[in-house]
Write a structure and sequence with these properties.
It contains 22 helices and 21 strands. It has 666 residues and is of the alpha/beta class. Bound molecules: adenosine-5'-diphosphate and magnesium ion (MG).
């Protein structure tokens, strides 16, 4: 593969900027697709309303006048003759262009139409005329230092070098769906010729994306089906004995899940099960019972969490519940000292650890198990396929359990998680009251403080969430440090507050979390690090600043941090923007409904939690909109996997190589 810096327009500075966008080789450059397409066509200005977007061209009628407000702010005005009419053009900070704008110069103007004054407030001005036919301009996500335009040029420079692209979709499928070829699709998406061709290109690329995804899923399923389960011999009575020592009675759904899992473990097939349940429905205990069954059958087990805070919480939880047993539980996170890690590695190999809890550190090369029998992944939507399988393949072939709090409508779940069996926990533990969700505008902060005061008086605890850690130059969003000052000013006399965010050391986080759990801190001010999994029963209020910044599903996850016992709990969403969208949360506490609404509003993007991580991040495809393509891709990929050609390593060797690379199976 060619290196990026051999492409025209890419120097060391650009390399760094591209890296920020996740572009680190020519392949990722090619597949860095536009997120939007703008149609550039001359507007019929007479038909426009006040403030409508407008594009036009014309000739400069008079010498522009420039007014300097300050060194950094200037305003230029001139008259433009479009052939149909004359408009006043106003544009800021383009004084440097004045010398290019002579009477009679042809220019293109993009901006907002000010009908009242028969003028256009331009956001962009270019020399030249509009093309006779509408043009489609691809728009890319970019970062400070590089514009969509510059990135577009770089991509075109590369495309014009007569590149080769690897095709994965077999010819007969290309024929079946009358797709155009891959190279044309890529050229078209980066330089659309017209709507029809662009749609053809999108069809190819979406289909390819979903086809490869489904191929992976189906392949995972096949590999699993071909592996025998581990031998286990545990009487259910023993499991029940342990369940009876728990501080509460299992809900019916939890009980059903445990039975499903027990049956899986005792069967001759390898377990690969997903437990789906809304936030707060009690998935952890199901995981713990599973670890216990695995222990009774003399295998080691691991429980993996997406964050350190959560791993520590699980560790404390397990040590507590297993305190009357001989089970040896350990915690492994990336932040441990090397010497501490080494001790754990040694004890693992020597079978002196029964259950290991941790974060990504569990994947590290040095972690070798003596007889790993079970892998549980909490909040599985946060991990990718690759990571999951690399852990799976350490040691012998363990049984697999995933926990997920992101409720996906069943039809989608079945298709997407085609390689897994599914159990759902629908009911909440009894005695829970519905969380009351309240929407407040920025200027109603006094009401919010009043509500907080009511809870603090009852010795209850509060979470406060802000989108930022520190003040940021180009944003006026709330940040953790400033909020801490504000909270101390309001409540410093009656209670203690503390900060928690991802940049703190593990030890600091651990200390703060422990103090919060022990009710030594009343208000915890944090970023979304507390989004997943944290469990403090006495916390009854969640206050989220600038809540419009978050997706509905994410807000629902945050809200799930409260309402964890029989106390009445509250969630206060503060925002003056997007109140209609946020209002949905005041109407329902049901995660399935919230994700359905999210689905309707934003497509599948936010459905699976954070956009960047997890398996379900598609570059172009949208699971809801393109669900039919997905279903076809699912069937087609299964057809290929089952074909003689694939099995015999013939025609589809490139697919096989791709699969094995991405599965990390050696
Ligand atoms: P999640 O499904 O979001 O991971 P957790 O497992 O953290 O939820 O459980 C939420 C809270 O409910 C915990 O405090 C847990 O101890 C409690 N809990 C779980 N199951 C039950 C039950 N059957 N009865 C009462 N409380 C329960
Ligand atoms: Mg959980």
């Amino acid at each position: 593969m060619r290196s990026l810096d051999s492409i025209k327009g890419i120097g060391p500075k650009t390399i760094k900027l591209l890296d920020k966008l996740g572009i680190n080789d020519t392949n990722s450059l090619l597949t860095y697709y536009p997120y939007r397409f703008d149609v550039i066509a001359k507007s019929n200005i007479e038909a426009l309303e006040q403030d409508d977007h407008v594009i036009t061209d014309g000739i400069v009628e008079n010498i522009p006048t420039v007014f300097f407000f300050s060194k950094k702010l200037n305003k230029m005005t001139f008259r433009l003759n479009t052939g149909d009419n004359i408009y006043n053009i106003v544009i800021f900070n383009r004084a440097f262009m004045k010398s290019n704008l002579k009477i009679g110069t042809k220019v293109i103007i993009i901006g907002k139409y000010d009908k009242k004054h028969s003028s256009i407030v331009a956001s962009d001005i270019k020399l030249g005329v509009l093309p006779p036919r509408p043009m489609i301009e691809p728009i890319y996500h970019v970062t400070n230092g590089i514009s969509s335009n510059q990135l577009h040029k770089i991509i075109l420079n590369y495309l014009n070098d007569n590149i080769e692209v690897e095709e994965y979709i077999p010819d007969y499928l290309v024929d079946r769906y009358k797709l155009i070829n891959k190279k044309d699709s890529i050229l078209e998406i980066h330089q659309p010729s017209n709507k029809i061709n662009l749609n053809k290109a999108l069809n190819y690329l979406k289909y390819e994306e979903l086809f490869l995804f489904m191929l992976k899923m189906n392949y995972l399923k096949q590999t699993r089906d071909n592996i025998d389960g581990l031998k286990r011999n545990v009487e259910y009575a023993k499991v029940e004995e342990f369940i009876n020592t728990l501080p509460f009675k299992l809900t019916d759904d939890q009980d059903k899940c445990v039975h499903n899992i027990y049956d899986d473990l005792m069967s001759t097939k390898r377990m690969n099960r997903l437990v789906q349940g809304d936030v707060g429905s009690g998935k952890t205990i199901v995981a713990i019972i599973t670890l216990y069954i695995n222990y009774l059958s003399h295998y080691q087990g691991v429980l993996m969490a997406p964050t350190e805070i959560l791993a520590i919480q699980h560790y404390n939880n397990l040590t507590n519940l297993f305190k009357n047993t001989n089970i040896k539980v350990e915690l492994l996170t990336g932040k441990l000292k090397l010497s501490e890690k080494k001790k754990i590695y040694k004890r693992l190999i020597d079978n002196e650890i029964d259950i290991l809890i941790g974060t990504h550190a569990l994947f590290s090369e040095d972690v070798i198990y003596n007889n790993l029998g079970l892998v549980i992944t909490d909040e599985q939507h946060r991990f990718g396929v690759n990571q999951r399988s690399s852990l799976k393949n350490k040691g012998i072939t363990p049984d697999i359990l995933y926990l997920s709090a992101t409720p996906i409508p069943r039809t989608y779940a079945i298709s997407l998680y085609g390689d897994m069996d599914l159990s759902s926990i629908h009911t909440m533990p009894s005695g829970r009251k519905d969380i009351i969700t309240i929407l407040k505008k920025d200027e109603e902060i006094k009401d919010v403080l009043d509500l907080m005061y009511q809870e603090l008086k009852k010795k209850h605890q509060i979470y406060v969430v802000a989108p930022l850690i520190e003040k940021s130059e180009n944003s006026d969003m709330e940040n953790v440090y400033v909020l801490k000052e504000k909270m101390d000013k309001a409540f410093g006399k009656i209670c203690k507050t503390a900060i928690l965010h991802g940049k703190m050391s593990a030890k600091e986080k651990d200390e703060v979390m422990n103090q919060y759990k022990n009710n030594e801190i009343s208000i915890l001010i944090s970023t979304t690090v507390i989004e997943v999994g944290v469990d403090v029963k006495n916390a009854t209020m969640m206050v989220i600043f600038d809540s419009y910044r978050f997706g509905l599903s994410q807000l629902h996850q945050l809200r799930g941090r409260v309402g964890r016992n029989d106390l009445q709990s509250y969630c206060v969403l503060i925002s003056s923007k997007e109140t209609e969208r946020l209002n949905i949360l005041t109407k329902t506490n049901d995660g399935f409904k919230v994700s359905e609404e999210d689905f309707k509003l934003r497509g599948s993007g936010d459905l699976f939690g954070t956009r960047q991580s997890g398996d379900m991040h598609f570059n172009l495809a949208d699971i809801k909109q393109d669900f039919n393509i997905l279903l076809r891709a699912k069937e087609d990929s299964a057809e290929i996997l089952n074909s003689q050609e694939f099995v015999n390593n013939g025609k589809y060797s490139n697919l096989k190589i791709l699969l094995e690379k991405s599965m990390n199976i050696s």
